[in-house]
Specification:
- The complex is a heterodimer.
- Among the domains of chain A are: 101 residues, Flavocytochrome C3, Chain A, domain 1, CATH 3.90.700; 111 residues, Up-down Bundle (Methane Monooxygenase Hydroxylase, Chain G, domain 1).
- By secondary structure, chain A is of the alpha/beta class.
- In chain A, helix 6 packs across helix 15, helix 9 packs across helix 10 and helix 13 packs antiparallel against helix 14.
- Chain A is built from 15 helices and 23 strands.
- In chain A, a hairpin with a 2-residue loop joins strand 22 and strand 23.
- The longest helix of chain A has 26 residues.
- Chain B has one domain: Alpha-Beta Plaits.
- Helices cover 10% and strands 32% of the residues of chain B.
- A three-stranded antiparallel beta sheet of chain B has the order 5-6-7.
- In chain B, strand 6 and strand 7 form a beta hairpin.
- The mean pLDDT of chain B is 95.
- The chains are: A alpha/beta, B mainly beta.
- At the A-B interface, strand 5, strand 7, helix 7, helix 9 and helix 10 of A face strand 6 and strand 7 of B.
- The complex binds flavin-adenine dinucleotide and iron/sulfur cluster (2 copies).
- The site of one iron/sulfur cluster has 14 residues of chain B, from helix 2.
């Protein structure tokens, strides 16, 4: 198939029009009169993590609290492996971005005196069903923002460690876009689909993290030689069994405790960090005291009804589940389980290694949201805050003399030879499944209770390399199939990076998230960031010293 | 977990195809929406909420314990009316106003 090449020019290119990307575009336009282009694989109206809606704003500083208090909380939860500078600069903006999204139309629950009503220590109650359409609407009112929907970015154009633009394809038409920009923001979110999921059959995509966030941004960065951090801090969520719906609304909303099959509350036994709660549930199951549940039986009819509504606003499958089975939460406890591991810098500290302005180690390339590392517990409002910081950083960086990106010559020929019409998506799916099985068995998936060893990781690496070679030969019949091949290749290189990171941390710091059977204890020699760079086809590991708040970190 | 598009009800407006975060829905040669690979569905219900003809039904796959219930959504300004047909054929409607915050 022949591709048509279309050059595009912009000042600020945002790759991924999700939470961080949309907010960054708005923040950029508030500060200058330059042009912005959002290249989004789906449609910004409902793309990314926010598609179904969210149930709360998880990061807000309540009256009496301070940004430093938030930093301390996140540092404790991550057992010390965080960037103080990133957490503090994010925390300082949490309340401002909250007011801004409220101004754009998000409903937030208020107390009679007009202050926001708190859910627990850091959460605000909202109606988050329409949060993404609200952002998309605000973008549509800003004439300087151009949105290219249904365009998949697959490669950065980098020379001498400086970015000049990206290559992208239309997912419908045979078009190769060569986008030139003075600065680029990577806001492609995190990665799902690396490991065998909870529901491996027909419902394989009924996972917590969006299956359409394939780690494209990480993979493009890795290939371009950008430094990555803390990928080994996988995020494994504790979720409602089968529907994989969030549990925070049950735990924090109606105060449901984690109980084992004997009815004992077990959560205190294992520590109340995010990973501790997961580790506790895995352990109770292993010791024969499963299944584990959130104790909702006995809540009031009013609470029952409110929960059904709250889940329709963010995870509608859970409400359907309650109603079709006839067992609503007041009648039956909600069973919980751990998910397969994800990589997401919005919950843990995985992602691009950035300076305080969120610039990556590739000049002119910024990262925000789930794509950016070092700053866990950022969630929706933290993604907004980082989008804003990155937009400001990009504006400062921009140089009007930036030359145009090269034409798509070599890339075009390569893609055309892949698009020879002989392939099928089935073959891509098969390889993806094989990859997920390898990761599950040898790199600590669900079936191994998240455990791995140096030996098993070596096996995983060997097998993933073979799969990557096979993926290299895949052919596509149309643009959609080509995008599926890109996604598989993104996941495969990310798997290799993840394996290298897991193997480098000779300790078990986050019980549940990392379970290194060779080194089952914490060892404070590893109070360091584990970073990596992809050089000549291999991952080089770097150990970096912790960065505290108050410092401005420069590469 | 997935969706089923009732061909006879679909008016071919294409709104579902526009919003799906996985771009899983296409308008087929005869002008109706189709989802060629329903197993790729994430279950976000964006398409269900978008469909003006109530042609898209949301269900839970049998492999995850689905019992055959079906869900559609009627949109009425800020109101979303979720109609859930239970496996025994009875209907339950839950109405939510997007101006009302969650109780939890
Ligand atoms: C199911 C779920 C529920 C959550 N609930 C809450 C909650 O209640 N409260 C809370 O505070 N936080 C919640 N979070 C966390 C929060 O939503 C995320 O941390 C945040 O939205 C991440 O923003 P992001 O911009 O990094 O990613 P996203 O918003 O996912 O954006 C990434 C975007 O990049 C696009 N993209 C990906 N690859 C490419 C490519 N190659 N080319 C072009 N575009 C691409 C995607 O389509 C997407 O639009 C939840 C997360 C999930 C998954
Ligand atoms: S439910 Fe969501 S993922 Fe599934 S087809 Fe509809 S819009 Fe796409
Ligand atoms: S939104 Fe409904 S009516 Fe419109 S194309 Fe999709 S299924 Fe058909």
């Amino acid at each position: 198939m022949k591709l048509k090449e279309e050059p595009i020019l912009t000042d600020f290119l945002i790759v991924g029009g999700g939470t961080a990307g949309c907010y960054a575009a708005l923040a950029f336009c508030e500060r200058c009169d330059k042009s912005v282009l959002i290249a989004e694989k789906a449609n910004i109206k409902r793309s990314g993590c926010l598609a179904a809606g969210v149930n709360a704003l998880n990061a807000y500083i309540m009256p009496g609290g301070t940004p430093q208090g938030y930093v301390d909380y996140a540092r404790g939860d991550a057992e010390g492996i965080v960037r103080g500078d990133l957490l503090l600069t994010m925390s300082e903006r949490l309340n401002r971005v909250t007011r801004k999204i409220e101004g754009l139309g998000l409903t937030i629950l208020k107390n009679p005196d007009g202050s926001y009503a708190a859910r627990g220590k850091r959460n605000l109650k909202i109606n988050g069903e329409n949060i993404k359409p609200i952002l998309a609407e605000a973008i549509s009112k800003e004439p300087r923002i151009t949105v290219l929907n249904r365009v998949c970015v697959f490669e950065y154009i980098v020379r001498d460690n400086r970015i000049y633009g990206v290559y992208a394809v239309s997912i419908d038409k045979p078009i190769l876009y060569v986008i030139s920009a003075k600065a680029v923001l990577c806001a492609t979110g995190g990665a799902a689909g690396l490991y065998k999921p909870n529901n491996p059959g027909f419902s394989r995509h009924k996972m917590w993290y969006p299956p359409f966030n394939t780690g494209a941004g990480y993979a493009m960065g890795i290939r371009a030689g950008a430094e990555m951090t803390t990928l080994e801090m996988r995020f494994i969520a504790l979720r409602c069994k089968d529907t994989i719906a969030p549990t925070g609304t049950l735990a924090q909303g109606v105060g449901a405790k984690q109980v084992n099959s004997l009815g004992e509350v077990y959560e205190q036994k294992y520590g109340l960090t995010t990973s501790g709660r997961l580790h506790g549930t895995v352990s109770e199951n292993l010791e024969g005291r499963g299944p584990c549940c959130l104790r909702t039986a006995g809540i009031s009819p009013r609470q029952d009804e409110d929960l059904q509504k709250a889940y329709l606003n963010m995870a509608p499958s859970q409400t359907l589940r309650w109603i079709e089975s006839g067992n609503t939460p007041s009648m039956q406890n909600v069973e919980i389980e751990g998910t397969e591991p994800y990589i997401t810098g919005g919950h843990t500290a995985s992602g691009y290694w950035v300076n305080t302005n969120r610039e990556t180690t590739v000049r002119g390339l910024f990262a925000a949201g789930d794509a950016a590392g070092g700053c866990p517990q950022k969630y929706v409002t933290g993604a907004f805050a980082e989008g804003e910081i990155a937009a400001q950083g990009a504006l400062k960086y921009m140089d009007d003399g930036t030359p145009l990106a090269a034409s798509g010559g070599g890339v075009k020929t390569l893609l055309e030879s892949r698009l020879d019409g002989t392939g099928s998506a089935d073959e891509t799916d098969r390889l993806e499944e094989e990859m997920q099985l390898v990761m599950d068995e040898h790199a600590g998936g669900i079936s191994r209770h998240y455990r791995y060893s140096g030996e098993s990781l070596k096996t995983a690496d060997e097998k993933i390399r073979i799969l990557a070679d096979r993926a290299d030969l895949l052919k596509a019949g149309n643009m959609r199939e080509l995008v599926y091949i890109f996604e598989l290749m993104e996941r495969l290189i990310l798997c290799r990076a993840l394996i290298a990171h897991l193997a480098a941390r000779h300790e078990t710091r986050w019980r549940g998230f990392t379970e290194n059977t060779d080194y089952p204890d914490t060892n404070d020699v590893f109070l360091k960031y584990i970073n990596s760079r992809f050089v000549d086809g291999e991952f080089q590991i770097l150990f970096r010293d912790l960065v505290a708040e108050g410092e401005a970190y420069e590469h | 977990m997935s969706i089923e598009i009732r061909r006879e009800a679909c008016i071919g407006c294409g709104q579902c195809a526009d919003v799906c975060p996985g771009s899983l829905i296409l308008i087929g040669p005869e002008g109706h929406a189709v989802i060629p690979r329903p197993e790729r569905c994430w279950g976000c219900a964006s398409c269900v909420k978008e469909c003006p003809a109530l042609a898209i039904e949301f269900f839970l796959g049998e492999d995850m314990g689905g019992k055959g219930g079906r869900m559609t959504v009627r949109r009425d300004n800020s109101l979303l009316r979720w109609d859930i047909v239970k496996p025994d054929g009875s209907l339950k409607t839950i109405t939510i106003d997007s101006r009302d915050p969650n109780g939890y």
